[in-house]
Specification:
By secondary structure, the protein is of the alpha+beta class. The protein contains four helices and six strands, in the order E-H-E-H-E-E-H-E-H-E. The chain folds into two domains: 70 residues, Alpha-Beta Plaits (2-Layer Sandwich); 33 residues, no CATH class.
């Protein structure tokens, strides 16, 4: 019987390690893929940048005079959903290796492990 197993990891590195162990050590695995949020990569790039804030200083006859305030970006200003690197793992296998896959996922730190059996 074909079984689909899903799990969540804290980071793509942990998920990739678990998937490699499953592919190399468990027979009957048809597919093993992972998916994670790529917006966290953009947030990591923003952390090393600068933030520019435009401040209105004084109105003139026809325009506003403005000043630009530059400050380094920190981890605190990036909202949590963009910092999150939660990774979902999807494994399709025959039913004989499901218990072994569950144990590998658990030992690698997976949470919310579900299967359709």
């Amino acid at each position: 019987m074909v079984t689909r197993i899903t799990a969540e990891f804290e980071s793509p590195d942990l998920a990739e390690t678990a998937l490699n162990r499953i592919r190399n050590n468990v027979r009957g695995v048809y597919s093993a893929t992972m998916r994670y949020s790529h917006s966290s990569e953009e947030a990591k790039k923003l952390r090393h940048g600068s933030i520019y804030t435009v401040l209105p200083v004084a109105p003139s006859a026809q325009n506003f005079l403005t000043a630009v305030l530059e400050s380094p970006a920190s981890k605190d200003i990036i909202p949590e959903p963009l910092r999150n690197r939660k990774t979902n793992v999807f494994i399709v296998c025959d039913g004989s290796g499901a218990d072994r896959i569950h144990s590998v996922l658990s030992s690698a730190g997976a949470v919310n492990i579900h299967s359709n059996t």
